[in-house]
Amino acid sequence: MKRILFMLIACTGLFTAARAQQDYHPSAENLQARQDFQDRKFGMFIHWGIYSILGSGEWVMHNQDIPYADYSRLASCFYPSAFDAKAWVALAKSAGMKYITITSRHHDGFSMFDTRASDYNIVKATPWHKDPLKMLADECHRQGIKLFFYYSLLDWGRPDYAFGKPIVDGKPQGADWDHYIAFMKQQLTELLTNYGPVAGIWFDGEWERKDADWHLDEIYALIHKLQPAAMIGNNHHHAPRSGEDFQMFEKDLPGNNSHGWNSGGVSALPLETCETMNGAWGFNIHDDNYKTVRQLVHYLVGDAGRNANFLLNIGPMSSGAIQPEFRDTLKALGEWMQQYGETVYGTRAGFLSPQPWGVTTQKNGKQFIHVLEYPDGGILFIPAVRQEIASAVDFATGKPVKYKQMPEGVFFYLQDVPRAAYDNVITVTLSGKTLKVPPRSKWIMNEK
Ligand code: GLC
């Protein structure tokens, strides 16, 4: 009996550790923002910090065991002479991206914005003395791009976080955890007060302390109070909690769990995949494993066909310049989006669930069949299509696509259609009729 009681108490502790925003009812502005977010479909993730100087990714302090005091000296070397907010926003736009999510403070604890909560920030601790987030926010507002702030819950350096200390009763042992929570609230208040409308906060790092009491109920309520439309997402890899407005999938399409950490299923909230151009988030000179344009188009379209957004990362150099490999790829993606944007922006998942060869999206009564893997011999067979197809047209040329629909499925004949580089899109309209499968007695069968 005692044991059961103990287990119950322990479990309650676990469930309340992160604590969701109780009784959360998203505001009308928030629900509207969710729709707008889903319509935007394609965003730019930016990982930029004093770690960019070392060119070994944003985990360099931790991975190379650099003591905090030594690492923090990087701040005095950070002078991004090539930083140009206008050019960053223009780059995102030219790639067809409709929002930006930028690191305001990463796990290294360095604040990339003007904050009164800590002197360890870009305005006070670097010789540059400027606030890039302010410049970026102003530019985003000018150019019609939404801006999200990434915010790390984890901090490798602050004594009140006490990285590495065991968690007892929801707090790190021997540390002033309440002080840390108050610090985060102060910073988030600044972020949601000094930068105009903020599209949302992208939390990360909670996974480092599963048993800590993060006071997320208060933090989420604070954000929603300051800006009701601001969307909250938390990259904790579990099913979303009350108070969260979108669900993210790190380096995975929704529902996949390629790395063993995306275990939260797929919720009814807006969805977002985040992915790197090579394998690194922060600028990394050791990683030239760049994804191809084809892979990225397939990722973006694969997400759209699963009702999800695609947030593609760049890690600018410490100077603020963006390496040519990223720029070239973004240019190619932008050209593709110029031509095919109609089949992605503002769409929702289409009439067919994701298939081995591609996905479908839909908008304004049109279904877009994205054939990502060209079928053998140019004949695509889709089994068990019950909705009657009224017309089929090649999106790129506007020419009719031959098809034959039978109770068993539909054949599309693509032999006369020019083969697209990444994605043959067939625009289909449905008549609204549902086809019945004929009774088994009517099947022509070759059985004894
Ligand atoms: C992981 C990494 C972090 C990165 C994030 C982006 O949480 O720890 O460095 O910012 O993924 O999704």
Topology:
Layout: H1 2-18, H2 28-40, E1 42-46, H3 60-63, H4 68-71, H5 85-94, E2 99-105, H6 122-125, H7 132-143, E3 146-152, E4 167-168, E5 171-172, H8 177-191, E6 200-204, H9 216-226, E7 231-234, E8 247-250, E9 271-275, H10 293-304, E10 308-314, H11 324-340, E11 348-349, E12 358-363, E13 366-371, E14 379-383, E15 387-394, E16 402-406, E17 409-413, E18 424-434
Parallel strand pairs: 1-2, 1-10, 2-3, 3-6, 6-7, 8-9, 9-10
Antiparallel strand pairs: 4-5, 11-12, 12-13, 13-18, 14-17, 15-18, 16-17
Question: Can you describe what's shown?
Answer:
With 448 residues, the protein is of the alpha/beta class. The chain folds into two domains: 4-347, TIM Barrel (Alpha-Beta Barrel), CATH 3.20.20.80; 350-447, Immunoglobulin-like (Sandwich), CATH 2.60.40.1180. 27% of the residues lie in helices and 21% in strands. It has helices at 2-18, 28-40, 60-63, 68-71, 85-94, 122-125, 132-143, 177-191, 216-226, 293-304, 324-340; strands spanning 42-46, 99-105, 146-152, 167-168, 171-172, 200-204, 231-234, 247-250, 271-275, 308-314, 348-349, 358-363, 366-371, 379-383, 387-394, 402-406, 409-413, 424-434. The strands form four sheets. An eight-stranded parallel β-sheet has the order 7-6-3-2-1-10-9-8, with helices on both faces. Strands 11-12-13-18-15 form a five-stranded antiparallel β-sheet, with helices on one face. α5 (85-94) crosses α7 (132-143), α5 (85-94) packs across α11 and α8 runs parallel beside α9 (216-226). The chain starts with a helix and ends in a 14-residue tail after the last strand. Bound molecules: alpha-D-glucopyranose (GLC). Alpha-D-glucopyranose (GLC) binds at residues 47, 58-59, 204, 235, 250, 274, 281.
